[in-house]
């Protein structure tokens, strides 16, 4: 008969053994039931002797087989509190005893590739750079800390590394030192350093001839792996993206030229000389076209086009004679487009007649000044009281030209002539010639080139330009008598003394514009 066995579940509070009878171990017949006493927990045969060599209060495991699977021990640090912020518990993928399998990758391959190989780095991250090395074979140490890729292209090597923009030179120097590159190649290497804009296209060029590719470090290992699967480019180093660059440059040039042509057309159409004149001349449709083509940079493009347009006009004016240039309408921005010029021509003749001025002398001397034919006389002066037509006459002449004005209080500033730079004519109203400025006026009115002061720049040479002056008082009122003679000897002077309006000389019959002076001058030539 099999002996009766007991399985101990633990020790009671009073030191007694709490035992339960294992029904599987009881046979049909049982004999000699014995009482169980003692304080040891464990399992031993009833009616037999306790196994020897067991420590006191130690469980015994003889008599049954151990578990054939792993039984985890309880975690003594386990609690039911909320998960801490620093602790990251990964989810249990055991599935309740079912074998776990990874979920299917539903992300498209090109999206994954775009994440792995972005076209351009985001702000704050590293950027790929490349340089060309021509020298001995690189020899990196086994435990080097640099990370780079280099590709052998027969007579040179292409290096690729990742770095921030402000640390690229330092990283490149570390690669040169770690690879034992030729130190004499530092300057050529620096001259070839450039960022990688498009990795896919650059990688296709790197593996064009199935060249040897070596990856140093683990940081760029995914780029080196990509070089094994990317399609090869058949062009050599001499034509690296040359055709693509030429095509793109041609397209950019055409696009840029179209934008500049649009701006130049608007400037020439309205005959504008300043940005403010262009703004006033633009229509709603013109502004929309400019915003669409140039965006917020349209003002900068407009200023450049206006500057180029004025420079073109100035060169034409300097190279053309006054009698030839005056035949054309060069004042579109202010032209009144009169249909009948007869009344205006009669009024101009009457203006000279009432002031006792011969038309031949007046226009003849004006032509000499404008054509710069006189050696020491370069100024045309009209004196007289106010409202006598002095400024009107000079404006009819100057509006056809690129002209500059001069400050009246020239003795208060040393830059009073700087506005005459890059101008065809100098227009002065009430100039103040004093002992401080008389020498500059001698040079200017005599037609001698001289240096003038310019703000925040070095002095510039002012060439000979015609000078037209209108003044209420004597031009040499503030000069000494000796200087006054020199100034007057350099001017053709005429006086207007009949006021407008007056019984002798009424107001102009219409709004006068340079068209009237041009027609008046043509009649005098004929």
Task: Tell me the layout of helices and strands.
Blueprint: E1 6-11, E2 17-21, H1 109-116, E3 127-133, E4 148-152, E5 157-163, H2 168-178, H3 186-192, E6 194-195, H4 199-206, E7 213-216, H5 221-226, H6 242-270, H7 275-281, H8 284-294, H9 298-319, H10 322-325, H11 342-354, H12 359-371, E8 379-383, H13 390-398, E9 403-405, E10 425-429, H14 438-446, E11 450-452, E12 460-462, E13 467-471, H15 481-488, E14 491-495, H16 514-525
Parallel strand pairs: 8-13, 8-14, 9-10, 10-13
Antiparallel strand pairs: 1-2, 3-5, 3-6, 4-5, 4-7, 11-12
Helix pairs in contact: 6-8, 6-9, 11-16, 13-16
Give an overview in words.
This protein is an alpha/beta fold and 526 residues long. It has four domains: 1-70, no CATH class; 119-240; 252-319; 342-525, 3-Layer(aba) Sandwich (Rossmann fold). Helices cover 34% and strands 12% of the residues. The chain contains 16 helices and 14 strands. Helix 11 (342-354) crosses helix 16 and helix 13 crosses helix 16. It is elongated, with a radius of gyration of 50 Å.
Features of this protein?
five-stranded antiparallel sheet, 526 residues, elongated, 14 strands, five-stranded parallel sheet, alpha/beta, disordered N terminus
Write a brief caption for the model:
By secondary structure, this protein is an alpha/beta fold.
Give the CATH topology of the largest domain.
Rossmann fold
CATH architecture of the largest domain: 3-Layer(aba) Sandwich
The number of distinct helices, counting runs of at least 4 residues, comes to 16
| Proportion of residues in helical segments | 25-40%
* Number of DSSP strand runs: 14
Largest β sheet strand count, sense and barrel closure: 5 strands, antiparallel
- Tell me, rounded to a whole number, the average pLDDT: 76
N/C terminus separation: 156 Å
CATH class type of the largest domain: Alpha Beta
Q: How much of the polypeptide forms β-strand, as a percent range?
A: 5-15%
- Going by CATH, the homologous superfamily of the largest domain would be P-loop containing nucleotide triphosphate hydrolases
* Strands side by side in the biggest sheet: 6-3-5-4-7
Please, how many domains?
Answer: 4
Low-confidence stretches: 1-48, 81-98, 120-124
């Amino acid at each position: 008969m099999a002996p009766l066995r007991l399985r101990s579940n633990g020790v009671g509070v009073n030191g007694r053994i709490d035992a339960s009878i294992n029904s599987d171990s009881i046979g049909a017949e049982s004999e000699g039931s014995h009482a169980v006493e003692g304080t040891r927990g464990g399992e031993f045969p009833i009616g037999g002797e306790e196994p020897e060599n067991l420590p006191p209060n130690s469980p015994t495991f003889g008599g049954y087989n151990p578990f054939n699977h792993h039984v985890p021990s309880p975690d003594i640090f386990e609690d039911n509190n909320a998960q801490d912020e620093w602790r990251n518990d990964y989810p249990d993928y055991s599935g309740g005893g079912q074998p776990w399998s990874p979920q299917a990758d539903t992300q498209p391959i090109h999206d994954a590739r775009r994440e792995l190989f972005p076209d351009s780095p985001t702000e704050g991250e590293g950027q790929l750079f490349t340089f060309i090395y021509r020298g001995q074979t690189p020899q990196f140490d086994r435990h080097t800390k640099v990370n780079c890729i280099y590709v052998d292209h027969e007579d040179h090597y292409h290096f690729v590394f990742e770095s921030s923009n402000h640390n690229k030179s330092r990283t490149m120097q570390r690669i040169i030192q770690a690879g034992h590159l030729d130190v004499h190649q530092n300057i050529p290497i620096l001259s070839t350093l450039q960022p990688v804009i498009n990795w896919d296209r650059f990688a296709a060029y790197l593996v064009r001839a199935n060249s040897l590719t070596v990856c140093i470090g683990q940081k760029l290992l995914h780029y080196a792996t990509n070089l094994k699967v990317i399609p090869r480019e058949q062009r050599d180093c001499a034509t690296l993206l040359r055709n693509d660059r030429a095509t793109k440059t041609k397209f950019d040039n055409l696009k840029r030229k179209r934008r500049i042509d649009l701006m130049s057309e608007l400037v020439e159409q309205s005959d504008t000389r300043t940005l403010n004149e262009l703004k006033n001349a633009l229509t709603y449709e013109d502004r929309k076209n400019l915003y669409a083509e140039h965006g917020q940079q349209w003002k900068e493009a407009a200023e450049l086009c206006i500057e180029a347009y004025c420079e073109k006009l100035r060169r034409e004016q300097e190279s053309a004679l006054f009698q030839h240039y005056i035949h054309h309408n060069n004042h579109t921005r202010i032209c009144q487009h009169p249909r009948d010029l007869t009344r205006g021509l009669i009024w101009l003749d009457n203006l000279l007649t009432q002031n006792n001025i011969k038309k031949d002398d007046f226009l003849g001397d004006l032509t000499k000044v404008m054509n710069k034919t006189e050696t020491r006389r370069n100024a045309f002066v009209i004196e007289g009281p106010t409202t006598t037509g002095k400024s009107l006459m000079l404006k009819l002449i100057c509006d056809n030209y690129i002209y500059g004005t001069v400050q009246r209080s020239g003795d208060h500033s040393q830059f009073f002539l700087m506005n005459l730079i890059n101008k065809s004519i100098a227009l002065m109203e009430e100039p103040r010639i004093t002992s401080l400025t008389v020498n500059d006026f001698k040079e200017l009115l005599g037609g001698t080139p001289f240096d003038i002061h310019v703000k925040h720049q070095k002095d510039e040479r002012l060439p000979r330009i015609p000078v037209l002056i209108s003044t209420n008082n004597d031009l040499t009122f503030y000069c000494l008598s000796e200087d006054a003679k020199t100034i007057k000897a350099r001017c053709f002077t005429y006086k207007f003394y009949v006021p407008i309006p007056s019984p002798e000389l009424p107001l102009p019959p219409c709004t006068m514009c340079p068209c009237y002076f041009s027609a008046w001058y043509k009649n005098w030539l004929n």
